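Entry for the shared binder. Reason: the reviewer on the internal report wants the predicted structure included alongside the sequence.
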Amino acid sequence: MATTTGHAPAPSHGQDTHGKKHGLNAELVGMLLFIGSEVMLFASLFTAYFFIRYGVSNEVWPPLKQDGEPFELPVMLTGINTLILVGSSFTLWWGERCLKAGDRKGLIRGLWVTILMGGTFLIIQFNEYAHLGFTPQDRAFSGAFYTLTGFHGAHVAVGLIILSMCLRRAYKNDFTATQHTPLAAGSYYWHFVDIVWVLLFLLVYVI
Protein backbone atom coordinates (compact mmCIF):
# COMPACT_ATOMS: atom_id res chain seq x y z
CA MET A 1 0.00 0.00 0.00
CA ALA A 2 1.28 3.43 -0.88
CA THR A 3 2.30 5.65 2.00
CA THR A 4 1.93 9.40 2.32
CA THR A 5 4.15 11.96 3.97
CA GLY A 6 3.35 15.19 5.71
CA HIS A 7 5.22 17.27 3.14
CA ALA A 8 3.24 19.17 0.53
CA PRO A 9 4.35 18.57 -3.06
CA ALA A 10 6.81 21.12 -4.43
CA PRO A 11 5.26 23.65 -6.77
CA SER A 12 5.71 22.84 -10.41
CA HIS A 13 7.87 24.99 -12.65
CA GLY A 14 6.20 28.27 -13.50
CA GLN A 15 4.02 28.37 -10.39
CA ASP A 16 4.45 29.97 -6.98
CA THR A 17 3.30 28.48 -3.69
CA HIS A 18 -0.19 29.92 -4.23
CA GLY A 19 -0.64 28.13 -7.54
CA LYS A 20 -0.31 31.29 -9.63
CA LYS A 21 1.71 31.07 -12.78
CA HIS A 22 4.66 33.36 -13.19
CA GLY A 23 4.85 35.54 -16.28
CA LEU A 24 3.21 38.61 -17.74
CA ASN A 25 0.00 39.69 -16.07
CA ALA A 26 -3.03 39.25 -18.33
CA GLU A 27 -4.28 42.78 -17.57
CA LEU A 28 -0.95 44.32 -18.52
CA VAL A 29 -0.81 42.24 -21.71
CA GLY A 30 -4.31 43.45 -22.55
CA MET A 31 -3.28 47.06 -22.04
CA LEU A 32 -0.16 46.59 -24.18
CA LEU A 33 -2.27 45.07 -26.96
CA PHE A 34 -4.70 47.98 -26.70
CA ILE A 35 -1.81 50.46 -26.88
CA GLY A 36 -0.56 48.58 -29.95
CA SER A 37 -3.90 49.17 -31.66
CA GLU A 38 -3.71 52.84 -30.68
CA VAL A 39 -0.23 53.06 -32.20
CA MET A 40 -1.70 51.88 -35.51
CA LEU A 41 -4.53 54.43 -35.22
CA PHE A 42 -2.17 57.35 -34.70
CA ALA A 43 0.18 56.01 -37.38
CA SER A 44 -2.69 56.20 -39.87
CA LEU A 45 -3.56 59.73 -38.74
CA PHE A 46 0.05 60.88 -39.08
CA THR A 47 0.22 59.24 -42.52
CA ALA A 48 -2.87 61.16 -43.63
CA TYR A 49 -1.36 64.36 -42.25
CA PHE A 50 1.89 63.89 -44.19
CA PHE A 51 -0.05 62.99 -47.34
CA ILE A 52 -2.00 66.24 -47.07
CA ARG A 53 1.10 68.25 -46.28
CA TYR A 54 3.55 66.81 -48.83
CA GLY A 55 1.45 64.93 -51.34
CA VAL A 56 -1.53 67.18 -52.03
CA SER A 57 -0.61 70.79 -51.39
CA ASN A 58 2.22 72.61 -53.13
CA GLU A 59 1.61 75.74 -51.09
CA VAL A 60 3.69 77.10 -48.27
CA TRP A 61 3.04 75.35 -44.98
CA PRO A 62 0.89 76.16 -43.22
CA PRO A 63 -1.15 77.30 -46.24
CA LEU A 64 -3.07 80.55 -46.48
CA LYS A 65 -6.67 80.79 -45.37
CA GLN A 66 -9.43 81.88 -47.74
CA ASP A 67 -8.99 85.50 -46.68
CA GLY A 68 -5.30 85.36 -47.59
CA GLU A 69 -4.07 85.36 -44.00
CA PRO A 70 -1.73 82.51 -42.96
CA PHE A 71 -2.71 79.85 -40.47
CA GLU A 72 -0.93 80.62 -37.21
CA LEU A 73 -0.20 78.08 -34.51
CA PRO A 74 0.72 79.17 -30.96
CA VAL A 75 4.04 77.35 -30.85
CA MET A 76 5.28 78.96 -27.62
CA LEU A 77 2.08 78.33 -25.64
CA THR A 78 1.82 74.78 -26.97
CA GLY A 79 5.46 74.20 -26.05
CA ILE A 80 4.66 75.16 -22.47
CA ASN A 81 1.63 72.88 -22.59
CA THR A 82 3.88 70.08 -23.84
CA LEU A 83 6.18 70.55 -20.86
CA ILE A 84 3.17 70.31 -18.56
CA LEU A 85 2.07 67.02 -20.08
CA VAL A 86 5.58 65.56 -20.09
CA GLY A 87 5.98 66.65 -16.48
CA SER A 88 2.83 64.71 -15.59
CA SER A 89 4.56 61.51 -16.67
CA PHE A 90 7.29 62.18 -14.14
CA THR A 91 4.83 62.90 -11.32
CA LEU A 92 3.04 59.64 -12.09
CA TRP A 93 6.34 57.76 -12.12
CA TRP A 94 7.23 59.39 -8.80
CA GLY A 95 3.91 58.30 -7.30
CA GLU A 96 4.54 54.72 -8.39
CA ARG A 97 7.99 54.81 -6.83
CA CYS A 98 6.45 56.03 -3.58
CA LEU A 99 4.01 53.11 -3.58
CA LYS A 100 6.81 50.60 -4.12
CA ALA A 101 8.60 52.17 -1.16
CA GLY A 102 5.50 51.75 0.99
CA ASP A 103 4.47 55.42 0.88
CA ARG A 104 0.79 55.35 -0.04
CA LYS A 105 0.36 59.08 0.62
CA GLY A 106 3.12 59.75 -1.87
CA LEU A 107 1.20 57.75 -4.48
CA ILE A 108 -1.95 59.76 -3.78
CA ARG A 109 -0.07 63.05 -4.08
CA GLY A 110 1.56 61.89 -7.32
CA LEU A 111 -1.80 60.92 -8.81
CA TRP A 112 -3.40 64.20 -7.79
CA VAL A 113 -0.62 66.28 -9.35
CA THR A 114 -0.70 64.15 -12.51
CA ILE A 115 -4.46 64.54 -12.87
CA LEU A 116 -4.29 68.30 -12.28
CA MET A 117 -1.51 68.68 -14.87
CA GLY A 118 -3.44 66.58 -17.39
CA GLY A 119 -6.56 68.68 -16.79
CA THR A 120 -4.51 71.86 -17.23
CA PHE A 121 -3.23 70.51 -20.55
CA LEU A 122 -6.80 70.03 -21.81
CA ILE A 123 -7.91 73.47 -20.64
CA ILE A 124 -5.02 75.12 -22.49
CA GLN A 125 -5.79 73.08 -25.59
CA PHE A 126 -9.46 74.11 -25.55
CA ASN A 127 -8.37 77.72 -25.07
CA GLU A 128 -6.09 77.30 -28.10
CA TYR A 129 -9.02 76.05 -30.19
CA ALA A 130 -11.04 79.11 -29.18
CA HIS A 131 -8.37 81.53 -30.38
CA LEU A 132 -6.92 79.81 -33.46
CA GLY A 133 -9.11 81.70 -35.89
CA PHE A 134 -9.81 78.72 -38.17
CA THR A 135 -12.14 75.74 -38.10
CA PRO A 136 -11.87 72.13 -39.33
CA GLN A 137 -13.87 73.09 -42.44
CA ASP A 138 -11.48 75.82 -43.66
CA ARG A 139 -8.86 73.75 -45.48
CA ALA A 140 -7.38 70.25 -45.56
CA PHE A 141 -4.66 71.55 -43.25
CA SER A 142 -7.11 72.63 -40.57
CA GLY A 143 -9.05 69.37 -40.87
CA ALA A 144 -5.87 67.32 -40.36
CA PHE A 145 -4.80 69.56 -37.48
CA TYR A 146 -8.09 69.26 -35.58
CA THR A 147 -8.28 65.52 -36.21
CA LEU A 148 -4.83 64.84 -34.81
CA THR A 149 -5.06 67.14 -31.82
CA GLY A 150 -8.71 66.26 -31.15
CA PHE A 151 -8.09 62.52 -31.12
CA HIS A 152 -5.14 63.04 -28.81
CA GLY A 153 -7.20 65.25 -26.50
CA ALA A 154 -9.84 62.51 -26.30
CA HIS A 155 -7.11 60.05 -25.28
CA VAL A 156 -5.92 62.44 -22.58
CA ALA A 157 -9.49 62.61 -21.26
CA VAL A 158 -9.67 58.79 -21.16
CA GLY A 159 -6.33 58.71 -19.37
CA LEU A 160 -7.63 61.15 -16.76
CA ILE A 161 -10.63 58.89 -16.15
CA ILE A 162 -8.33 55.89 -15.69
CA LEU A 163 -6.05 57.77 -13.29
CA SER A 164 -9.06 59.08 -11.35
CA MET A 165 -10.24 55.50 -10.88
CA CYS A 166 -6.74 54.56 -9.70
CA LEU A 167 -6.80 57.48 -7.26
CA ARG A 168 -10.12 56.29 -5.85
CA ARG A 169 -8.69 52.83 -5.33
CA ALA A 170 -5.56 54.29 -3.74
CA TYR A 171 -7.75 56.01 -1.13
CA LYS A 172 -9.38 52.64 -0.46
CA ASN A 173 -5.95 51.01 0.09
CA ASP A 174 -6.44 48.67 -2.85
CA PHE A 175 -2.85 48.99 -4.08
CA THR A 176 0.24 47.55 -2.42
CA ALA A 177 3.91 47.60 -3.31
CA THR A 178 3.55 44.20 -5.00
CA GLN A 179 -0.07 44.28 -6.20
CA HIS A 180 -0.92 47.34 -8.31
CA THR A 181 -1.63 45.99 -11.79
CA PRO A 182 -4.45 48.47 -12.64
CA LEU A 183 -2.16 51.35 -11.69
CA ALA A 184 0.65 49.96 -13.84
CA ALA A 185 -1.72 49.53 -16.79
CA GLY A 186 -2.98 53.09 -16.41
CA SER A 187 0.60 54.31 -16.18
CA TYR A 188 1.50 52.58 -19.46
CA TYR A 189 -1.43 54.26 -21.16
CA TRP A 190 -0.59 57.71 -19.78
CA HIS A 191 3.05 57.50 -20.84
CA PHE A 192 1.94 56.41 -24.32
CA VAL A 193 -0.39 59.43 -24.61
CA ASP A 194 2.47 61.71 -23.58
CA ILE A 195 4.87 60.24 -26.15
CA VAL A 196 2.29 60.67 -28.92
CA TRP A 197 1.86 64.33 -28.01
CA VAL A 198 5.60 65.00 -28.11
CA LEU A 199 5.72 63.55 -31.63
CA LEU A 200 2.63 65.52 -32.62
CA PHE A 201 4.07 68.76 -31.28
CA LEU A 202 7.35 68.29 -33.14
CA LEU A 203 5.78 67.22 -36.45
CA VAL A 204 2.84 69.64 -36.56
CA TYR A 205 3.89 72.71 -34.58
CA VAL A 206 7.67 72.81 -34.96
CA ILE A 207 8.68 71.27 -38.32
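Summary line for the report: Residues 1-23 have pLDDT under 50 and may be disordered.
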